[in-house]
Amino acid sequence: MKDVKDNNSMSESPRVINPAALLLRSAMSDFEIPLTKYAVSILGDLEQARDVVQDTFLKLYKQDPEKVRKKVKSWLFTVCRNHCYDLIKRNRRTSNLEEDEISYITSNDDNPFQVISFLEGREEIDEKIKILYSLIEELPSRQREVMRLKFQANLSYKEIAETIGISTSNVGFVMHSALKKLREDMKEKFPKKS
Amino acid sequence: MADKEDPKLTAYALNEFDENEFSSTDDQMLDSQENRELVNDIRNESVLISKAFELEPDCGLTEEQKNRIYEKTGLLAVSHFEDDLSDKLLSFDSRSSLNVSKENQNLNQKSRNNHKAVIVSLVSAAAAIVITMFVLHQNNVEPNKVANESIENEGLLSVTMIENDVQGNINKSQWVSRMNHSNPVDLSQKFRYTEPFESDLISENTINFEGYEFKNPARLENRLSIFPANIGSKSYEELRKGILAGTLPNNKKINVGELINAFGHNYSKPSSGEAFAIDSEFIYSPWSSEKCLLRIGVSVADQDNPKSNEKLLLSNVKMSVEFNPDKVSGYRLIGESDLDVNLSVERLDQDVLLAGQTVTVLYEVIPINTKQVANEKTSEIVSVSIDYKDPFDGKNKSMLSRVLVDGIKPIEKSSNDIRFAASVLGYGMILEERHDLTEATYDLVLELANNSLGNDEKGKRSEFIKWINHTRAIKQKE
Q1: For domain A114-194, which architecture applies?
Q2: pTM for the whole thing?
Q3: Taking the alpha carbons of A71, A74, A79, A82 in that order, is the dihedral positive or negative?
């Protein structure tokens, strides 16, 4: 190896990727997991959720990247959500389930994430967080959905509003009520020691 | 005073408040102690809720489904060279890098050989690196607003327990390391590149690559890397003592960042009238075709400089590197991960630079080599900025230096200083006994050191070469 004194360099860009693929790749790396979790929370079924997410990504690839880029997050969650509800409708048609039974599936007590067994044997996990999670599960479904989109998927009020089709101030109100409810419940469970 | 029950307060606490909506009445809302406490409560609550959602085990697509997406879109397979495009996917995505890094070692070896050949044949097709420096006057320097400083948030660090007690839980441990080693986020910070994400997607915060954790600069808390003004030499002393005695110290005690600084560097002096000079250099890594090394050297003017006198002492110094997330998918500051929490906190107070002092930091960087139409800012890979208080006029100033995409040099064209730093880094990797993960070997490290002696006025670099040989001998006896 020689000590070359000059500052010459070469410019090379061996990786050439088209913008749609680039957008898809970064969307997959950023949102694959939160999207799947979101779909599971609606569908209550991991396999179906995965299919929906796969379709969502494939659909993203067909979009004009310049048009979607700025709002890719709410685009993904909206499309994913619509897919989920389409699927529920289709399932309903094939199995003739009553409305009540559908809502039973969407707010499934038999938690699809199996968090309960996940937590067993891990006493170290902050008790507070565990209890908070169970309290979130008890919230009305609209509040739960807003919380998940905000705190798990990190969507803004505006993005949440676009995704679930309500106004931004409505999101603010739902969020406010949910947080207040949780705060009060938590105070009850963990009264402040003086 | 606004009603305590106002959803506006919640929105404000969650940073959802549009500044335009913020009327003077709303300003008064925060005058009340009670409301300010409520805002704090809501913020703490929201951190806990994010943690609660993290209790859910991660679930995503199956490998089969992902591959189907890759197949259907056809363009996601990424490789250095088209010849090497195999059915295996090479990508900078954290998970797939993990999966393919071992299988593709041979492939990487091959592509690097190709790579070198290409470099040699293209020596004439050269572009000059442009490192532009200019001084900016910084207006209205507000006191830093440091995020994550509330007591409740510190309490959350107790989630460290999860990492300590439950092995193999990657997400949790990454979150913890983010908390431990991330720089406090200055909320008033303006960034040069694409707005960073403030994200709960902890799994994407760091990229585990070849056994090391790299920070993803797309994330807010990783965008800036702040490096210390003063780097100790304890590791050098420990190692020197050990080698003289024929033993090697516990590798946990050795901070490679300290070693790199201990051997000294030959930096050009600041030009007349400047308080200091920033000297940066970006090269392809000698041992990994997917990585680059970035060396940043800072030298402070000494007595020869007309602007300085023997009392020259720059205070309120903050040195930071901003990585462009469109060009860099991950970086790690050498020596940073070896610091424990307390050290990194203490380090933030080190904001003083002395006359004649030099500081060297080395980063390992995983670049994204996409060919995009370069405009003025996006062709930058990194920018280095030094904020300081001018000792003469008392004003806060800032100096900026940047490295452009085409400024990455092959090792053949690198300076002695970066080759030597690379040699010390490789040596550190050998000490860490990670040779299954990296291709740093004694021979490579020796070759690098032998080719970077320069003047070596104090003989320290020659001493280092002796160390490498001694270390090899000691290790062989073990």
Answers
A1: Orthogonal Bundle (1.10)
A2: 0.46
A3: negative
